[in-house]
Structure formats: C-alpha cells, structure tokens
Amino acid sequence: MSMTIDQLGDALAGLSLKDAVELGKYMKDKYGIEAAAGGAVMMAAAGGGAAAPKAEEKSSFDVVLKAVDAAKKIQVIKVVREATGLGLAEAKALVDAPGKAIKQGLDKAEAEKLKKTLTDAGGTVDLV
Fold this sequence. Notes:
Radius of gyration: 21 Å
Number of helices: 6
Structural class: alpha+beta
Strand order of the largest sheet: 2-1-3
Distance between the termini: 46 Å
Helix content: 40-55%
Number of domains: 2
C-alpha cells in the first residue's frame, strides 16, 4: 500500500520528538541520509496542539567575541587565527567587529576551552 504525500506529511507531523529522532537515526543508518540541524525539532513543533517537548540540554555552542581589551588586541588576534585558521587580515577583521561568532557548532568542552583561551588573551566572550 502506497501513502500519498499528504498522508506521509501528516504522519511525520504527528511524530513525537523521540520518534522523530529514531526516524532520523534509521534514515542515516539505512540510507545514509542526515537531517539538517534542528530538523527533528521542527517536525515535532509542526504537530500543533501537542504538548511542547521538554527542553533538551544544549549540545552545540557558538563562541562569540563581544569585546576586546585594546591593550591585548594582538594576543586576541593570534588566538582567533589559531582557532579558525584564518589569515591575519581576516582574523583582525573578525576581532575589529565584536559580536560575531569566532567558531560555531562546538561541543561544550571545546567551546569552554576556546572561551577561556580568548578571555585569557584579553577578550570578552559569550557562548550561545
């Protein structure tokens, strides 16, 4: 029996968050297809009247440089270059424009390590 697109869409929208995660694992293991980041969350949210799933602990962090101590700007540029692999001009431009992410999608340990390194060098950093 074949499902119509409407039936398939309705079935997917009705999945619980746990079922959506399991579907994602199955598609990856069986067919090598990975969902875009946040795909399972968007599917669960499309369920409409269903209760919102419990908030999960954040697992991916962006390291955002908020400010730089002017006296330590060179040290911060060096850390940014090392962390990102950018050239001198690109790293300087990133440091000169605070509020931008230095690195994105890091796990908590990596993000905390980079935050400490940037802070020690003279930067003010947020993890988002």
